[in-house]
Amino acid sequence: MPQDNPAKPRKLLLVVACALVDVDGRVLIAQRPKGKSMEDLWEFPGGKLEPGESLEGALIRELKEELDVDTEDACLAPFVFASHAYEEFDLLMPLYVCRKWKGTPRALEHQAITWVRPNELRKYDMPPADKPLVSHLIDLL
Which of 53, 61, 98, 125 is the most buried (most CB within 10 A)? Predict the structure, then answer.
């Protein structure tokens, strides 16, 4: 029997993120720019997939666009994922760990970037989807 008021289907947004880890075991986080949703919050770099892109391909592209660093598939280790029900959509975000890249990260799209010890990540205000990833990184590093 059809429902009179069926629930509107929610959009699923797939984004990919990366924990760049330096030789000292610090993780790079980036501050979201002014004028974007969740401005000023600190996040793991990454972004949306373009049509036909693999997760790794999207992450390699995003790291170049956001931080001006080059890496490759073999340097990206799938680690954990987060999901979060935002008001407008459901987010699914795989997090990769990368310990090898070429270039010195610099903020091309973010307000700022910083290297943080995993046990200090909770001091930074992060989007809801990023927060649960912190415990996993503390355990790993």
Answer: 98
